[in-house]
Specification:
The complex is a heterodimer of chains A (329) and B (271). With 329 residues, chain A is of the alpha/beta class. Chain A has one domain (4-325): pyruvate-formate lyase- activating enzyme. Chain A has helices at 15-22, 36-39, 46-49, 97-100, 112-122, 143-146, 148-157, 174-177, 194-200, 207-219, 237-249, 269-278, 300-314, and strands at 4-8, 28-32, 55-58, 65-67, 78-82, 85-86, 91-92, 106-109, 129-132, 162-168, 185-190, 201-202, 223-228, 257-262, 266-268, 290-292, 295-297, 323-325. In chain A, the strands form four sheets. In chain A, strands 4-5-9-10-11-13-14-18 form an eight-stranded mixed β-sheet. Chain B folds into two domains: 2-199, Nucleoside phosphorylase domain (Rossmann fold, 3-Layer(aba) Sandwich), CATH 3.40.50.1580; 203-266. In chain B, 39% of the residues lie in helices and 20% in strands. The radius of gyration of chain B is 23 Å and the shape is elongated. In chain B, strands 1, 2, 3, 4, 5, 6, 7, 8, 9 and 10 form a ten-stranded mixed β-sheet that branches. The chains are: A alpha/beta (329), B alpha/beta (271). Bound molecules: iron/sulfur cluster. Chain B: InterPro entries: Nucleoside_phosphorylase_sf, SPL.
Chain lengths: 329, 271
């Protein structure tokens, strides 16, 4: 339950604000001028807030759609990302959001139309234009609160050159299942092996539940995808990932899988330091990591070994042209 | 340590009785009361007094960071009945227009409400919010010492448009208003203390660092590295004892840090 909703005065009468508030009748509503006065305040603690986050409803001004980082590409011509929401229902200990933001509150920009207008302006006809959501949040976990996907599907239904990636660790696929499948909307599920899920992906549904959600989407004609990004080091790394791949591919038909990406655990030094300060007892931030220049990651040789091994292993289940390893140069 | 900042003696009394706090007679700037886990200061009325008292108490309890701070007392409200208690989710300084946001991350026994801090008493009750004369400066000051989740403002309504401020409550009336809330305030502040505990460094780091600092000279940045490496070692071996952390021998602080670094690299490899 969300106990408190901060609402920017400029969106207080926005219909989306009204409907979100109507769904949280017991929450205290606090009017605010600008979300930054809460979200960016320096004297607050992400770890403590994560235990009971509030919701912030705000208006985003500009910079709706941005060029996506290189690592995001899955074979399209143009790659963009957008963040109608910041922060996440889940609490993965390796999540870079906890290093990036001072606040753990869920920040939702209610002017979805501005995002969709900007997406519209970026589409190059005849090309594959990808729009990645889920860079600063899980794309589906808070769908019951935001209703973003329900809003976006009719938009993408009429723009075949615009491809939407919803990246998630959730099982919130109801909105999609209630809609006819769209060939340009891909729901990408992120996984780590069982032991890592248990140790680090707090509140994330079990691997099996996520596979079931994925399977249901595929059975209903929706394209799905796999994201093994980041790969997390662990004892018995190869066996753990082999078992995970087996568990997924034995249940989800390869023909419905658009792509699989594989990426390393990497974070700017400053993010790593912030995360380590928040959770000093967490071995993940120490175990096997090394610092090179301004980044913290597994040592380059080990990183390459992990990614190459995972790529080879995935090729047992997926054609090579569907696999996108992200090997940092 | 849980710190209470109150404006008046009468607001302090129920807390002093409940937590069995002892008056610190040598303290002349403000009345101060201490217990094992609690500290209380009586600031007097107004923003300057409250900021000064908050800062004074911070010093008195050892300049510790990430401790619990609570401003407890009476407040006006246009419509809430006298005796109602509210936790404040927004504190607005009426004069400067500065707005502060105590972060509410634990379940509270009371609903939450906005509060205006005024410079002068006001019986017009024009704003639909709690009214007091201290909370904004209390929060601004305490939030320098503790994260916004640990700094809270709890107010009990003492006057409203129907029973306005000019019928100033007597000392006894204030005590009777606040005393029924103290039990819940105790549970609330204990929960805050549990949050604060999550932010305290592991005791073993301080113990082992003190041991090594007796043996070697460390520069400031070396001391920081020492503590950081000890913390990393504990992260990799949660059950490690202080004795084990102190097991390294070295010729210098530099060599010790290298040994610790090596130990962590070895321990951090997956097995
Ligand atoms: S699901 Fe993704 S966005 Fe959410 S906490 Fe985990 S890594 Fe972060």
């Amino acid at each position: 339950m969300i106990p408190l909703v901060y609402v920017e005065e400029s969106v207080r009468n926005h219909p989306r604000t009204e409907s979100i508030l109507a769904r949280h009748p017991r929450a205290s509503v606090v009017p605010i001028e600008r979300y930054g006065s809460i979200f960016n305040h320096s004297q607050q603690n992400f770890r403590l807030q994560k235990q009971r986050p509030a919701l912030i409803l705000a208006n985003k001004h500009g910079h709706f759609v941005q060029p996506a980082p290189d690592a995001y590409g899955v074979g399209g011509n143009h790659n963009w990302y957008f963040s109608h929401m910041l922060n996440c229902l889940y609490d993965c200990r390796y999540c870079f959001l906890q290093g990036m933001y001072r606040s753990a509150h869920y920040l939702v920009f209610v002017n979805f139309e501005s995002f969709l207008d900007d997406i519209d302006s970026k589409i190059e006809t005849g090309k594959q234009n990808w729009f990645f959501s889920g860079y600063d949040a899980d794309s589906l976990a808070l769908e019951p609160v935001t209703g973003f996907v329900a809003n976006a599907l009719p938009f993408f239904a009429t723009r075949p050159d615009a491809w939407l990636e919803l990246r998630t660790k959730s099982t919130q696929v109801r909105q999609l299942l209630e809609h006819d499948p769209l060939s340009n909307v891909v729901t990408a599920f992120s996984y780590t092996p069982e032991a890592t899920w248990k140790a680090t992906e707090h509140k994330v549904p079990s691997i099996e539940k996520r596979i079931q959600a994925m399977k249901k989407l595929a059975e209903n004609g929706w394209i799905v995808a796999l994201r093994f990004d980041p790969l997390i080091e662990q004892a018995g790394f190869n066996d753990a990932y082999s078992a995970l791949f087996e568990q997924i591919f034995s249940q989800v038909p390869e023909s419905m899988i658009h792509s699989a990406t594989i990426g390393p655990l990497r974070m700017p030094k400053q993010f790593h330091r912030t995360m380590e300060n928040l959770y000093p007892e967490e071995s993940l931030f120490v175990s096997g990591l090394a610092q090179t220049n301004s980044m913290v990651s597994y040592p380059a040789e080990r990183e390459r070994e992990m990614i190459e091994w995972a790529t080879d292993e995935l090729e047992k289940h997926l054609p090579g042209n569907k696999i996108f390893p992200n090997l940092p140069s | 340590m849980i710190h209470f900042v109150v404006a008046f003696d009468a607001e302090a009394r129920p807390l002093i009785d409940h937590f069995k706090l002892k008056r610190q007679h040598h303290e002349r700037s403000f009345p101060v009361y201490l217990g094992e886990q609690h500290a209380l200061i009586v600031s007097g009325a107004g923003k300057i007094a409250s900021a000064a008292a908050t800062a004074h108490l911070h010093g008195l309890t050892g300049f510790q960071h990430q401790q619990v701070w609570i401003n407890f007392g009476i407040a006006g409200h246009p419509s809430l009945p006298v005796g109602e208690t509210r936790l404040c989710h927004q504190v607005i300084d009426k004069l400067s227009k500065q707005v502060f946001y105590p972060q509410l991350v634990i379940k509270s026994p009371w609903p939450s409400e906005s509060l205006f801090t005024l410079d002068e008493p006001d019986d017009s009750y024009a704003d639909d919010a709690l009214l007091d004369m201290e909370a904004s400066s209390f929060f601004a000051t305490a939030n320098r010492y503790a994260t916004a989740e640990l700094v809270q403002v709890v107010k009990v309504v003492s006057d409203n448009a129907e029973a306005p401020i000019n019928d100033i409550p007597t000392k006894q009336q204030i005590i009777e208003l606040l005393a029924p809330q103290v039990e819940q305030l105790k549970h609330f502040s204990d929960s805050l203390q549990q949050l604060a505990n999550q932010l305290q460094p592991d005791r073993r780091i301080g113990e082992a660092a003190a041991y090594y600092q007796q043996k070697f000279h460390f520069s400031f940045s070396q001391s920081e590295s020492l503590r950081h490496l000890l913390q990393q070692w504990i992260a990799l071996d949660a059950a490690i004892s202080t004795d084990e952390l102190c097991r390294f021998d070295a010729k210098s602080s530099r060599q010790l840090l290298e040994k610790l670094q090596q130990q962590i690299s070895d321990a951090g490899q997956p097995t």
